[in-house]
Design goal:
Layout: H1 2-6, H2 10-68, E1 72-73, E2 98-100, E3 105-110, E4 113-119, H3 123-130
Parallel strand pairs: 1-2
Antiparallel strand pairs: 2-3, 3-4
């Protein structure tokens, strides 16, 4: 064994071999990190999509419940956030009032403007509300 290390060629070969092994390991380690990052990003995207779908479904259910409840119909406008609406005699609508349009949009009046918008694509609910 002692003669193995006395050979001057082994002083070059052994460190060179160790450098090559280290380089290969670092390359495969970088690939693993890349795969893990891609997997993490994919999982985060899937979770985000599930949350967005859940929120959209909740907003849809909220809009349907508003159409089925006491809702002030706004015939001449499509509801958007911050829309200032007037009731009879050009008076502003009371805060907390629920308003609906013919496009599936509902909102609540807060500080004189529309807020907390919710939308549904359920045409049967909208038609029933409009009396069609």
């Amino acid at each position: 064994m002692m003669q193995l290390f006395r050979n001057p060629l082994m002083g070059i070969v052994v460190p060179g071999f160790l450098l090559i092994v280290g380089a290969v390991h670092s390359l495969t380690d970088a690939d693993r990190r890349d795969r893990q990052a891609i997997a993490r990003d994919t999982a985060q995207t899937a979770v985000r999509q599930r949350l967005e779908v859940g929120q959209a479904e909740a907003r849809d259910r909220l809009a349907v419940s508003r159409y089925q409840g006491a809702c002030v119909y706004v015939p001449d406008a499509q509801l958007v956030p911050g829309l200032r609406l007037q009731g009879q005699n050009a008076l502003p609508l009371v805060d907390g009032s629920t308003v609906c349009d013919a496009f599936g949009n509902t909102a609540v009046i807060a500080e004189g403007v529309t807020a907390d918008l919710a939308t549904t694509a359920n045409q049967s609910v909208i038609r029933q509300f409009l009396g069609w």
